[in-house]
Amino acid sequence: MNRVFPVLVLLLVSTGGTGAEDPNLDKVRKAIATKLPGVEAVTPSAVPGLYQLQKGQSFAYVTGDGRYLIQGDMVDLVTGELITEKQRRTVRLAALKEFGPKSVIEFAPKKPKYTVTVFTDIDCGYCRKLHSEMSEYHDQGIAVRYLFFPRSGPDTESFSKAESVWCSKDRKEALTQAKLGLPIKAPSTCSNPILKHYETADALGVDATPTMILPDGEVVRGYVPAAALASRLATGDWRQAQSGTPAP
């Protein structure tokens, strides 16, 4: 996980204030470094006197004397803002920025309205269902940007299939064929980003496929029909959308 998050830690520190602004911050950081050495970032929180601790996708809060740890998400009951979740979304989106167009396989309509990142597994049933309905997502203006998360892990058949797809001359066609259960003739020995995809998914807490990350950084675990996903993307509201269905 540490490979993925150094830039993100710097991002959180830069948005959370500095020791010059909060004279108590250095004291808290020293206390946490002694008591919780695995913490990656300590920054002021939205609540005066509380400090935010961050390690990957995990967040907690500590009192100004470094004595009391508070676990759980912070929510502003006046505005409804999901303060802790907003930080997680920042981390997710920053991680995904590491993957440019040459490091993903993207299926997009001519004029996409939205781009959704999907962690996929070639052998996952609902991943195959999602892919078989790609034209429906395109009709809704949704582009699908694939990263691989073979759930069985490295050095397994599913992982090799993903590498073979990447090593194919036409990656999009190879992925479509693989999701139909057809063999891929390309070798799995070319230079490829599959392990980096996998490690990033693991660091972000992905544990099922398909897992979608929406443009605002929200995570959706499982398959969601195109129309329901388009409704969520257009309105920011899941009340009219169907819940996601993760792979068996």
Q: Could you name the CATH topology of the largest domain? A: Glutaredoxin
- The tally of helices reads 9
Radius of gyration: 20 Å
Specify the overall morphology.
globular
Mean pLDDT: 89
| CATH C-level label of the largest domain | Alpha Beta
Structure description:
With 248 residues, this protein is an alpha+beta fold. The chain has 2 domains: 91 residues, Disulphide bond isomerase, DsbC/G, N-terminal (Nuclear Transport Factor 2, Chain: A); 135 residues, 3-Layer(aba) Sandwich (Glutaredoxin), CATH 3.40.30.10. The chain is 36% helix and 17% strand. The protein has 9 helices and 9 strands. The strands form 2 sheets. A 5-stranded mixed beta sheet has the order 5-7-6-8-9. Helix 6 packs antiparallel against helix 7. The radius of gyration is 20 Å and the shape is globular. The N terminus is likely disordered.
Fill in the keyword field for this structure.
9 helices, about 35% helix, about 250 residues, alpha+beta, Nuclear Transport Factor 2, Chain: A, Glutaredoxin
Topology:
Elements: H1 6-15, H2 25-35, E1 41-44, E2 50-55, E3 58-63, E4 69-71, H3 83-96, E5 105-107, E6 114-120, H4 125-132, H5 134-139, E7 142-148, H6 157-167, H7 171-179, H8 194-203, E8 211-213, E9 219-221, H9 226-235
Parallel strand pairs: 6-7
Antiparallel strand pairs: 1-2, 2-3, 3-4, 5-7, 6-8, 8-9
Summarize the structure.
By secondary structure, the protein is α+β, with helices and mostly antiparallel strands.
